[in-house]
Design goal:
- The structure is a single chain.
- By secondary structure, this protein is α+β, with helices and mostly antiparallel strands.
- It has a single domain, classed as Dimeric alpha+beta barrel (Alpha-Beta Plaits), CATH 3.30.70.1060.
- Helices cover about 30% and strands about 35% of the residues.
- It has 4 helices and 4 strands; from the N terminus they run E-H-H-E-E-H-E-H.
- The protein is globular and about 45 Å long.
- The two termini are about 20 Å apart.
Length: about 100
């Protein structure tokens, strides 16, 4: 399994949280059970207070799985999927 950091940004106008139905759909999409159906394990997610950016740390066997899982978020803004490593792995290999 590979580690990925996801950054999703959208504008105030396209914010899914403003629409109760869309917000509920995206929360259900982020559920552990649904993520598992895509082969994705979510370690954590957070939205910057007062902002319009979602960050997530996930594991999957490849980037394509993560891209497919986060595709619904592209309806509201951009999605950036970045390969990542844990801090322990970076220290073990002595640098980024």
């Amino acid at each position: 399994m590979s580690l990925f950091v996801i950054q999703h940004q959208h504008t105030h106008e396209t914010c899914p949280a403003q629409n109760p139905e869309m917000g509920a759909m995206l929360l259900q999409h982020l559920s552990p059970a649904n993520a598992a159906e895509f082969g994705v394990k979510i370690h954590g997610d957070a939205v910057v207070d007062g902002g319009h950016a979602l960050y997530a740390i996930v594991e999957a066997s490849d980037k394509e799985q993560v891209d497919k899982f986060f595709a619904p978020f592209a309806m509201a803004g951009n999605v950036n999927v970045m390969p990542a490593s844990s801090c322990e792995v970076v220290v073990d290999r002595r640098g980024c």
